[in-house]
Amino acid sequence: xxxxxxxxxxxxxxxxxxxxxxxxxxxxxxxxxxxxxxxxxxxxxxxxxxxxxxxxxxxxxxxxxxxxxxxxxxxxxxxxxxxxxxxxxxxxxxxxxxxxxxxxxxxxxxxxxxxxxxxxxxxxxxxxxxxxxxxxxxxxxxxxxxxxxxxxxxxxxxxxxxxxxxxxxxxxxxxxxxxxxxxxxxxxxxxxxxxxxxxxxxxxxxxxxxxxxxxxxxxxxxxxxxxxxxxxxxxxxxxxxxxxxxxxxxxxxxxxxxxxxxxxxxxxxxxxxxxxxxxxxxxxxxxxxxxxxxxxxxxxxxxxxxxxxxxxxxxxxxxxxxxxxxxxxxxxxxxxxxxxxxxxxxxxxxxxxxxxxxxxxxxxxxxxxxxxxxxxxxxxxxxxxxxxxxxxxxxxxxxxxxxxxxxxxxxxxxxxxxxxxxxxxxxxxxxxxxxxxxxxxxxxxxxxxxxxxxxxxxxxxxxxxxxxxxxxxxxxxxxxxxxxxxxxxxxxxxxxxxxxxxxxxxxxxxxxxxxxxxxxxxxxxxxxxxxxxxxxxxxxxxxxxxxxxxxxxxxxxxxxxxxxxxxxxxxxxxxxxxxxxxxxxxxxxxxxxxxxxxxxxxxxxxxxxxxxxxxxxxxxxxxxxxxxxxxxxxxxxxxxxxxxxxxxxxxxxxxxxx
Length: 658
Prior knowledge:
With 658 residues, the chain is an alpha/beta fold.
């Protein structure tokens, strides 16, 4: 319960008790006054009734003198008549007459319900009037005893009317008091609401400084404290960000061209061609520069560096359409361009543009193209290639380019496998799998090696259509991308995940890696929204979604829209394939992932300063680091010395769940 509600409830109860007490006192006081007034009226009216009874008795005696007959029955009848008239007139509830001789006694009681007054109020009020008794004397003769009880109906009606009026006044008073209270509390607690918003923003990695300082001393101290904390956390992040960028440049960037170096290229290559990121392969371009010494001799060191920087810029310009590109300066005279999802023809066109830009660069610097030139080797790789094969074949393509006369570009493309299925064959298989849901879900654990618990399970899927119709993710995802069927595959598998029971996920967390193609599909967001809106409340386990870090860097706005969708249903979000390639880590604040997954080789390759800077960033944002592709106990021990206990990969088979 919020502080406002607690204070409002407490003060409201006090107001209600106070007003209720005042109303109760007024009610009881009025009731007492009415009863006293009724008793006095009853006593006053008693004398009148006694006089009427005496007169009735005298009238009877006079008649007996004339006729010499005393008609006692007539006398009694007259007394009864007077009593009935008094009760019937509403003056009394009860009248009782007992003669002195005891020969005559008459009592009349009015037990009719009180009109206009509910029974519950009569029971609640419970008015009890005292019976008033007086001796009836006619001169020195005692006629009898008259006992009367006033009619409480008058009091009930007056009290009920007053009660309803008090109730209306009470309700209006309480409503006005609560309205005033609400306004006052909103005003008084407004600084606290801003503090609450500030605290919630910190959890979202948004650092807000309160400019409006409240007048209340206690709130003022809290605001100063929160502002100081926000400044401190943001300062920690900024320092970590600067340190991470600086260390990243030292580790992975060529100081002259600002391109990645060979060290980063070798770390990133497995990630670019590994099974989870395969499409139809891509192009790797090796570029060798001849005449570097001549450039330094003619231009001097500084201008030569400027020329290399311009050359690097031209590499980026000719292949900027490839988001997953990787450009590296392998050594002083060799460069590598890695272009996933690039066809051979497009790769050749990129090489031609590089040639044109290089010739223009030579002319602008008045350099001789006979002494200074480049050779370009292009290798169009298939999804099945490994890093060693890719580098060897690309180097062979570069050697062929150097050996050519009149053409400095050589393209090497492997012939298609005769046993490989064609596009239409894959279309039939994939569409059938979608329509009849032939996808089989698999789950791989992410474990905490320290606590020996499963943190979450990562979902993948295969096609299982029976004998000779079983295909792994890496087999069918490439043709699925080319056929534009990736989104349909993911929607079918996600629906299966959240609508069917998977015993291994009960009470746990399942993480789903969303492919780049799914996120880029304009229809995917709406389809996923509909699916989650329909089934989110019925899911028996927690969900988390992942996207690749490089895609998130280049498509932050698109990824953020998905993150907002996940947050709507309290689903988690994380980044995988993290290699620290960003020049600025502020995108992490914007996306607010719960975890980063980085290849074990990347993490172990970090210097102590680099790892410390990265952990400062993640700690300040509340992000966990998870190591992937961990294979050996030795790797695990090294990771744990870096305070990384969450792991994926073959090593999880040797960790016994506690």
